[in-house]
Fold this protein.
Amino acid sequence: MDSPPRSSVIIIGAGISGVSAGKVLAENGIKDMVILEASDRIGGRIRKDNFGGVSVELGAGWIAGVGGKESNPVWELASQSGLRTCFSDYSNARYNIYDRSGKIFPSGVAADSYKKAVDLAIENLKSLEANLVGELIEPPSSPKTPIELAIDFILHDFEMAEVEPISTYVDFGEREFLVADERGYEHLLYKMAENFLFTSEGKILDNRLKLNKMQSYLVAVKID
Ligand SMILES: Cc1cc2nc3c(=O)[nH]c(=O)nc-3n(C[C@H](O)[C@H](O)[C@H](O)COP(=O)(O)OP(=O)(O)OC[C@H]3O[C@@H](n4cnc5c(N)ncnc54)[C@H](O)[C@@H]3O)c2cc1C
Protein backbone atom coordinates (compact mmCIF):
# COMPACT_ATOMS: atom_id res chain seq x y z
CA MET A 1 0.00 0.00 0.00
CA ASP A 2 1.26 3.47 -0.87
CA SER A 3 2.16 5.53 2.13
CA PRO A 4 0.25 8.81 2.30
CA PRO A 5 2.10 11.86 0.92
CA ARG A 6 4.05 13.59 3.63
CA SER A 7 4.31 17.30 4.17
CA SER A 8 7.28 19.14 5.63
CA VAL A 9 5.04 21.67 7.31
CA ILE A 10 1.58 21.56 8.81
CA ILE A 11 -0.09 24.91 9.34
CA ILE A 12 -2.98 24.82 11.76
CA GLY A 13 -5.64 27.40 10.95
CA ALA A 14 -6.29 29.39 7.81
CA GLY A 15 -6.79 32.79 9.38
CA ILE A 16 -4.52 35.63 8.32
CA SER A 17 -1.65 34.16 10.37
CA GLY A 18 -1.89 30.73 8.75
CA VAL A 19 -2.34 32.03 5.23
CA SER A 20 0.54 34.47 5.54
CA ALA A 21 2.73 31.72 7.03
CA GLY A 22 1.93 29.60 3.95
CA LYS A 23 2.77 32.47 1.63
CA VAL A 24 6.12 33.14 3.31
CA LEU A 25 7.00 29.43 3.23
CA ALA A 26 6.11 29.19 -0.47
CA GLU A 27 8.17 32.28 -1.24
CA ASN A 28 11.08 30.54 0.41
CA GLY A 29 10.72 27.39 -1.64
CA ILE A 30 8.76 25.24 0.82
CA LYS A 31 5.74 24.05 -1.11
CA ASP A 32 4.99 20.67 0.50
CA MET A 33 2.82 22.08 3.23
CA VAL A 34 -0.68 21.32 4.38
CA ILE A 35 -3.05 23.84 5.94
CA LEU A 36 -5.62 22.37 8.30
CA GLU A 37 -8.63 24.57 8.89
CA ALA A 38 -11.38 23.57 11.31
CA SER A 39 -14.11 25.59 9.60
CA ASP A 40 -15.39 25.50 6.04
CA ARG A 41 -13.63 28.70 4.95
CA ILE A 42 -10.41 30.61 5.19
CA GLY A 43 -10.25 33.94 7.01
CA GLY A 44 -10.86 33.06 10.67
CA ARG A 45 -11.84 36.21 12.52
CA ILE A 46 -11.79 38.14 9.26
CA ARG A 47 -15.21 37.40 7.84
CA LYS A 48 -18.15 39.11 6.25
CA ASP A 49 -21.82 38.33 5.90
CA ASN A 50 -24.75 39.64 3.99
CA PHE A 51 -27.10 41.84 5.97
CA GLY A 52 -30.10 43.42 4.29
CA GLY A 53 -28.47 43.05 0.90
CA VAL A 54 -25.17 44.63 1.86
CA SER A 55 -21.91 43.12 2.88
CA VAL A 56 -21.01 43.72 6.53
CA GLU A 57 -17.88 42.78 8.41
CA LEU A 58 -18.50 40.48 11.37
CA GLY A 59 -14.89 40.49 12.53
CA ALA A 60 -12.02 42.81 11.71
CA GLY A 61 -13.14 46.00 10.01
CA TRP A 62 -10.21 48.38 10.27
CA ILE A 63 -6.61 48.46 9.23
CA ALA A 64 -5.03 50.19 12.18
CA GLY A 65 -1.54 51.64 12.23
CA VAL A 66 -0.84 53.52 9.04
CA GLY A 67 1.38 56.50 8.26
CA GLY A 68 4.14 55.83 10.79
CA LYS A 69 7.85 55.20 10.59
CA GLU A 70 7.44 51.60 9.52
CA SER A 71 5.20 50.23 6.81
CA ASN A 72 2.32 48.12 8.10
CA PRO A 73 2.35 44.75 6.27
CA VAL A 74 -1.45 44.51 6.40
CA TRP A 75 -1.69 47.92 4.77
CA GLU A 76 0.75 46.80 2.08
CA LEU A 77 -1.37 43.70 1.42
CA ALA A 78 -4.51 45.82 1.25
CA SER A 79 -2.87 48.10 -1.32
CA GLN A 80 -1.59 45.15 -3.35
CA SER A 81 -5.00 43.49 -3.38
CA GLY A 82 -6.82 46.71 -4.29
CA LEU A 83 -8.95 46.63 -1.15
CA ARG A 84 -11.16 49.69 -0.92
CA THR A 85 -10.66 51.56 2.34
CA CYS A 86 -11.54 54.94 3.75
CA PHE A 87 -9.72 57.00 6.34
CA SER A 88 -11.41 57.03 9.75
CA ASP A 89 -11.29 60.65 10.78
CA TYR A 90 -12.07 60.77 14.47
CA SER A 91 -11.32 64.47 14.85
CA ASN A 92 -15.02 65.33 14.67
CA ALA A 93 -16.27 62.22 16.41
CA ARG A 94 -18.59 62.84 19.31
CA TYR A 95 -20.15 60.57 21.86
CA ASN A 96 -23.61 61.33 23.13
CA ILE A 97 -24.70 60.14 26.52
CA TYR A 98 -28.42 59.69 27.18
CA ASP A 99 -30.34 59.22 30.39
CA ARG A 100 -32.93 56.47 30.70
CA SER A 101 -35.72 58.72 29.35
CA GLY A 102 -33.70 59.27 26.18
CA LYS A 103 -32.75 62.85 27.11
CA ILE A 104 -29.27 63.74 25.95
CA PHE A 105 -26.79 64.92 28.57
CA PRO A 106 -25.43 68.36 27.69
CA SER A 107 -22.12 67.70 25.95
CA GLY A 108 -20.20 69.91 28.40
CA VAL A 109 -21.47 67.91 31.40
CA ALA A 110 -20.79 64.63 29.64
CA ALA A 111 -17.29 65.68 28.53
CA ASP A 112 -16.48 67.00 31.98
CA SER A 113 -17.73 63.84 33.70
CA TYR A 114 -15.89 61.72 31.17
CA LYS A 115 -12.61 63.56 31.74
CA LYS A 116 -13.00 63.29 35.54
CA ALA A 117 -13.78 59.58 35.27
CA VAL A 118 -10.80 58.99 32.98
CA ASP A 119 -8.43 60.89 35.27
CA LEU A 120 -9.78 59.07 38.32
CA ALA A 121 -9.55 55.66 36.64
CA ILE A 122 -5.96 56.34 35.59
CA GLU A 123 -5.04 57.42 39.13
CA ASN A 124 -6.74 54.30 40.54
CA LEU A 125 -4.91 52.06 38.08
CA LYS A 126 -1.58 53.66 38.94
CA SER A 127 -2.08 53.22 42.67
CA LEU A 128 -3.39 49.67 42.15
CA GLU A 129 -0.25 48.83 40.22
CA ALA A 130 1.94 50.44 42.86
CA ASN A 131 0.29 48.53 45.73
CA LEU A 132 -0.59 45.31 44.03
CA VAL A 133 2.02 42.94 45.44
CA GLY A 134 0.57 40.84 48.24
CA GLU A 135 -2.32 43.17 49.08
CA LEU A 136 -5.99 42.42 49.06
CA ILE A 137 -7.51 45.01 46.77
CA GLU A 138 -11.11 46.15 47.14
CA PRO A 139 -12.83 45.57 43.77
CA PRO A 140 -13.99 48.81 42.13
CA SER A 141 -17.70 49.52 42.60
CA SER A 142 -19.84 48.72 39.58
CA PRO A 143 -21.42 51.58 37.61
CA LYS A 144 -24.96 52.50 38.63
CA THR A 145 -26.24 55.55 36.82
CA PRO A 146 -26.60 55.80 32.99
CA ILE A 147 -23.66 58.15 32.79
CA GLU A 148 -21.49 55.81 34.88
CA LEU A 149 -22.52 52.90 32.65
CA ALA A 150 -21.66 54.83 29.49
CA ILE A 151 -18.34 55.98 30.89
CA ASP A 152 -17.54 52.50 32.12
CA PHE A 153 -18.24 51.08 28.67
CA ILE A 154 -16.16 53.65 26.80
CA LEU A 155 -13.37 53.79 29.32
CA HIS A 156 -12.89 50.18 30.28
CA ASP A 157 -14.37 48.08 27.51
CA PHE A 158 -13.56 50.29 24.55
CA GLU A 159 -10.51 52.37 25.39
CA MET A 160 -8.51 50.56 28.02
CA ALA A 161 -8.92 46.90 27.24
CA GLU A 162 -5.44 47.06 25.74
CA VAL A 163 -2.08 47.57 27.32
CA GLU A 164 -0.17 50.71 26.46
CA PRO A 165 1.86 51.37 24.42
CA ILE A 166 0.21 49.57 21.52
CA SER A 167 3.02 48.60 19.17
CA THR A 168 0.74 48.77 16.11
CA TYR A 169 0.35 52.51 16.63
CA VAL A 170 3.89 53.15 17.85
CA ASP A 171 5.56 51.33 14.94
CA PHE A 172 3.13 51.75 12.10
CA GLY A 173 1.42 55.05 12.86
CA GLU A 174 -1.74 56.50 14.33
CA ARG A 175 -4.01 56.47 11.31
CA GLU A 176 -6.82 53.96 10.84
CA PHE A 177 -8.65 52.96 7.68
CA LEU A 178 -12.06 51.33 7.54
CA VAL A 179 -12.36 48.50 5.05
CA ALA A 180 -15.26 49.59 2.84
CA ASP A 181 -15.25 46.92 0.21
CA GLU A 182 -18.18 44.74 -0.89
CA ARG A 183 -15.75 41.85 -1.29
CA GLY A 184 -14.94 42.16 2.41
CA TYR A 185 -11.70 42.33 4.33
CA GLU A 186 -11.38 38.63 3.50
CA HIS A 187 -10.67 39.56 -0.12
CA LEU A 188 -7.15 40.35 1.08
CA LEU A 189 -6.83 36.75 2.33
CA TYR A 190 -7.95 35.32 -1.01
CA LYS A 191 -5.48 37.51 -2.89
CA MET A 192 -2.74 36.37 -0.55
CA ALA A 193 -3.75 32.71 -0.96
CA GLU A 194 -3.70 33.09 -4.76
CA ASN A 195 0.04 33.63 -4.53
CA PHE A 196 0.75 30.09 -3.48
CA LEU A 197 -2.43 28.00 -3.66
CA PHE A 198 -4.15 26.86 -6.82
CA THR A 199 -7.33 28.86 -7.40
CA SER A 200 -9.91 29.02 -10.13
CA GLU A 201 -12.75 31.53 -10.52
CA GLY A 202 -12.13 32.94 -7.06
CA LYS A 203 -12.24 29.51 -5.39
CA ILE A 204 -9.30 27.79 -3.73
CA LEU A 205 -9.01 24.32 -5.23
CA ASP A 206 -5.58 23.43 -3.93
CA ASN A 207 -5.63 20.11 -2.04
CA ARG A 208 -3.00 21.37 0.39
CA LEU A 209 -5.79 23.40 2.01
CA LYS A 210 -7.92 21.03 4.07
CA LEU A 211 -11.13 22.65 5.23
CA ASN A 212 -13.29 21.18 8.00
CA LYS A 213 -10.21 19.56 9.47
CA MET A 214 -9.71 20.18 13.14
CA GLN A 215 -6.20 19.52 14.41
CA SER A 216 -6.81 18.04 17.84
CA TYR A 217 -3.49 16.59 18.89
CA LEU A 218 0.04 17.89 19.22
CA VAL A 219 2.36 17.63 16.29
CA ALA A 220 6.04 16.88 16.69
CA VAL A 221 8.14 18.67 14.13
CA LYS A 222 11.44 17.16 13.11
CA ILE A 223 13.92 19.52 11.54
CA ASP A 224 16.81 17.86 9.73
C1 LIG B 1 -15.33 41.33 16.22
C2 LIG B 1 -13.86 41.50 15.90
C3 LIG B 1 -13.41 42.72 15.43
C4 LIG B 1 -12.06 42.90 15.13
N1 LIG B 1 -11.66 44.10 14.60
C5 LIG B 1 -10.40 44.22 14.16
C6 LIG B 1 -10.01 45.37 13.42
O1 LIG B 1 -10.81 46.26 13.15
N2 LIG B 1 -8.72 45.44 12.99
C7 LIG B 1 -7.82 44.43 13.23
O2 LIG B 1 -6.65 44.54 12.81
N3 LIG B 1 -8.16 43.34 13.93
C8 LIG B 1 -9.43 43.20 14.38
N4 LIG B 1 -9.82 42.06 15.01
C9 LIG B 1 -8.80 41.06 15.29
C10 LIG B 1 -8.44 40.25 14.03
O3 LIG B 1 -9.61 39.78 13.41
C11 LIG B 1 -7.57 39.10 14.46
O4 LIG B 1 -6.44 39.59 15.17
C12 LIG B 1 -7.04 38.29 13.29
O5 LIG B 1 -8.04 38.01 12.35
C13 LIG B 1 -6.45 37.01 13.86
O6 LIG B 1 -5.97 36.22 12.82
P1 LIG B 1 -5.32 34.81 13.13
O7 LIG B 1 -5.05 34.15 11.83
O8 LIG B 1 -4.18 34.98 14.04
O9 LIG B 1 -6.43 34.02 13.95
P2 LIG B 1 -7.92 33.62 13.51
O10 LIG B 1 -8.49 34.59 12.56
O11 LIG B 1 -8.65 33.33 14.77
O12 LIG B 1 -7.70 32.27 12.70
C14 LIG B 1 -7.45 31.05 13.34
C15 LIG B 1 -8.01 29.96 12.43
O13 LIG B 1 -7.59 28.74 12.97
C16 LIG B 1 -8.66 27.82 12.93
N5 LIG B 1 -8.39 26.86 14.00
C17 LIG B 1 -8.33 27.08 15.33
N6 LIG B 1 -8.01 25.95 15.97
C18 LIG B 1 -7.85 24.98 15.04
C19 LIG B 1 -7.51 23.61 15.07
N7 LIG B 1 -7.25 22.97 16.23
N8 LIG B 1 -7.44 22.90 13.92
C20 LIG B 1 -7.71 23.52 12.74
N9 LIG B 1 -8.02 24.84 12.63
C21 LIG B 1 -8.10 25.56 13.77
C22 LIG B 1 -9.89 28.67 13.16
O14 LIG B 1 -11.06 28.06 12.65
C23 LIG B 1 -9.52 29.95 12.39
O15 LIG B 1 -9.96 29.91 11.04
C24 LIG B 1 -11.15 41.84 15.32
C25 LIG B 1 -11.62 40.61 15.81
C26 LIG B 1 -12.95 40.44 16.08
C27 LIG B 1 -13.44 39.09 16.57
